[in-house]
Amino acid sequence: MATHLPDPLHRSAGAHWGSAGRAAIFGRERRERVGSWPFYRAGYVNALLSGRLDDGDDFAVVAGEHGRNYPFFHPRSRWDDLLMVAGERRLLAAGRRLPPLTLVLRDDGSALLAYRGLAAAARGALVDVDLQLELTAGLRPPHWEGFGRGPLLLGLRWQPALVRGTGALTLDGKRRRVESLAGEMERGSLQNLRARAFRFAYDYIAVTRPGAEAAAHVAFRSFPLPRGPAGWPLRALLFMARARENLTLCEDDRTEHGDPRALAPAPGEAIEPWVESVVNLGPARLVRQLARIGPEERRRWALIERFVPRAPGRAALI
After folding, report:
1. DSSP state of 242
2. Nearest in space to 81 (alpha carbons), one of 59, 63, 60, 54
3. Comparing C-alpha atoms, which of 233, 250, 240, 128 is closest to residue 184?
4. Of 85, 110, 180, 249, which sees the most CB atoms within 10 A?
5. Under a CB-based contact definition with an 8 Å cutoff, are residues 77 and 69 in contact?
6. Where are the chain's structural domains?
7. What is the C-alpha separation between 98 and 16, in angstroms, rounded?
8. pTM of the predicted model, to two decimals?
9. Which helix (H) or strand (E) holds 232?
């Protein structure tokens, strides 16, 4: 069962999910910077974590802060969200800006995921949430997708980290410990051309599991958003550039190619979306799912992302 949340910008003026009493901390990836024509710049911070509550129940969370114009140079292309499973409870908060959300990945190896505000439950009821996760991060060297490097990069510079930690979750006044947390955080900076022909989309999956040995698998591929001849120029460029990843983050700061820990879904293995966020980004809708994979003895949690292009002339669904 998936939980959908309408775009808060379609509510009455000034309405939003969560309380505004706690401002988000923006890292360098979230600064509002447009870039000089014909380029634009944008960035994000993202997290996938899973663990156990103190009574043994499952816990998993996805959170993301995405700056203006990520990934498209378009006024609607910006969003934050929080997708969470706590036992049998499924919670979602989403919006163009989500002030109650704090998501930090620092160079010194410390990290923080916090949320203090309201979230929507499966049947639309609002739940008071106080989530505090203190994490340690094993940052890996940056990866470069596209052409060039540094200020000459046309593409994405992203940096993943394997994270572990503990924390606390309070729902409607009841506090519970969060234990055995493990997962992946990443931060990225994008520089791209503003022209519509250079709009890109991607298929993305990150998978992790709680336990004594932390590991996280990340795989994605980029492709042109325009269909048909309009996408041919970018398709040709991506054919010559680095535009995909398939790696596993392991302990001891090791990064292994592929999926040696068998975290990704096997052919025919059950994938159950538990919470889903659908965001209208203008040229396309982005579907983000917090999904459960496999039987209990091999339980993993995944973040799955896919883009749904808008047909010409079609009205936005959210």
Report:
1. B
2. 63
3. 250
4. 249
5. yes
6. 8-309
7. 8
8. 0.87
9. helix 232-240
- For 63, residues 6+ apart whose C-beta sits below 8 A from its C-beta are 46, 47, 81, 82, 83, 101, 103, 113, 115
If you average pLDDT over every residue of the chain, what do you get? 86
Nearest residue to 60 (alpha-carbon basis) of 311, 272, 240: 272
Tokens of 145: 């997708």
Q: What is the spatial distance between Cα 10 and Cα 13, in angstroms, rounded to a whole number?
A: 8
Count each helix (H run) and each strand (E run) in the chain, helices first.
1, 17
More reliable by pLDDT, 147 or 16 = 147
66-112 confidence digits (pLDDT tens): 999 999 999 999 999 999 999 999 999 999 999 999 999 999 999 99
For the chain, the straight-line distance linking the first and the last C-alpha, in angstroms and rounded, comes to 19
**How far lies 14's CA from each of 10, 68, 82, 100, in Å?**
10, 19, 20, 15
Residue type, 167: G
Provide the pLDDT for residue 297: 86
CA dihedral 224, 229, 235, 236 (to 10 degrees): -160
**What six digits make up the tokens of 52?**
């156990």
What gap in Å lies between CA 213 and CA 263, rounded to an integer?
13
* 8 Å CB contact between 55 and 177: no
H/E element, 63 = strand 58-66
Rounded mean pLDDT, 166-175: 96
Q: Note whether 191 and 39 are within 8 A (CB).
A: yes
Q: How far is CA 192 from CA 43, 70, 199, in A?
A: 11, 10, 8
- Cα(123)–Cα(96) distance, rounded to whole angstroms? 22
Token match 């993305």: residue?
204
